[in-house]
Amino acid sequence: MENTKLTKLEEVVDKLIEQLKGLKNDKKMLQTTLQTRDDKIKALETQVAELNDKQDKISERVDNLINSIEDWEKSPEPAVAEESEGSEGGEDQGHGAPLFT
Alpha-carbon dihedral of residues 72, 78, 100, 87, nearest 10 degrees? Predict the structure, then answer.
């Protein structure tokens, strides 16, 4: 009778050990998956930061171009006499600073 109980206990312990091994294996796989995703998230965050920086620089350049155009539009038109007297060597005196540099 005790032998039967002992055998049954051994079987239960063996099942628990196998389940524990399976759970440890599952945990290891999940940790690997989690690490892979964490690495991907970090890479994507870096990419987003770089793209945001690039977008900010482009927005700043566009704003500067718009401001240059607005300044140019607000500047007074040169008189016809001034244009003919002031242009030497075919240079365009225009409206001050060049619009695009």
Answer: -170
Query: What pLDDT sits at residue 84?
Result: 52
pLDDT in tens, 72-83: 999 987 766 555
Instruction: Say which DSSP state 96 is in.
Output: S
User: Which amino acid, one-letter code, is at 53?
Assistant: D
The H or E element that residue 68 is part of is helix 2-74
Measured distance CA(26)–CA(33) in Å, rounded: 11
Residues 6+ apart with CB under 8 A from 68: 97, 99
Domain residue ranges of the chain, discontinuous segments joined by +: 2-66
Q: Are residues 99 and 73 in contact, defined by beta-carbon separation less than 8 angstroms?
A: no
Q: Which residue has the tokens 């600073």?
A: 97
pTM over 0.70: no
